[in-house]
Amino acid sequence: MIALENYEKSLKRLESWFKKTLTEDQAEILYSQVMFIPGEPFEAITNKIIESKAPNPGNFPTSKEIKFEWYIWKKDNPHKVVVDHEETDCDDCYGTGFLWFRQTVLVTNLKTEHCCRCAMCKNWKPDIHADLMPVYSREYLESLGLELWPYWKYVDPERFKGGDKGGTIKQSNS
User: Fold this and answer.
1) CA dist list (Å): 122 to 80, 89, 115, 117
2) N or C: which end of the chain has fewer CB within 10 A?
3) Domains of the chain: which residue ranges?
4) What would the pLDDT profile of 10-61 be if each residue is shown by its tens digit?
5) How far is CA 34 from CA 29, 61, 86, in A?
6) Which of 58-67, 103-112, 147-156 is predicted most confidently?
7) Exposed, middle or buried, 134 (CB in 10 Å: 0-12/13-18/19+)?
8) Whole-model pTM?
C-alpha cells in the first residue's frame, strides 16, 4: 500500500505535469481507489504516465488508467510481485479462474464472446486486477441460458490441470 505522503508527492508531480489541481475530495477519492498499489510501482507508474503523455499532457489520468498501468507493471516485474494466494481446484472454471461464454444479440442474432472472473475461486488473481472484469458463477451464467465455452481453447494448456473436461460446458459448433 502506498503511503499517503508518497501518494501526495506523486500526485503533485501529476498535477504539475497535467496543469490541473485536484480538489481535496477528488484527491481522496483517487487515493481510496489506488491505495493498494505499493510505493515503488506507484512511482514507476507516475513516471510512465508522464513520459507517455509527453509532449501533450492531455487529460489527468483516471484511477482505471492507473490500475491498468499497475497490471502492466506486475506483468513486467513478476520477480517483485508477492503471490498472496494459492491456486485451488475449482469445478466451475477447472482452475483457470475465468469463465468464457457466448451471448446471442437478439437484434442481429450474432454471437458475442465474453469472459468473466470465476466467483467460486480466486485463481484469476495473478492475471488480472479485480476491478477490470466482472465476477459470475457457472451456475448463474447457465441460469441465464448463456453458452459456456471450454477454457482450454483460450489458455496455455501447460498452466492448468484438467485436460478435456466435459462437465456442464456446452460445446460450440462454430
Assistant:
1) 20, 10, 15, 8
2) C
3) 4-80, 86-174
4) 999 999 988 899 999 999 999 988 888 888 889 999 999 988 876 677 788 8
5) 9, 12, 24
6) 58-67
7) exposed
8) 0.49
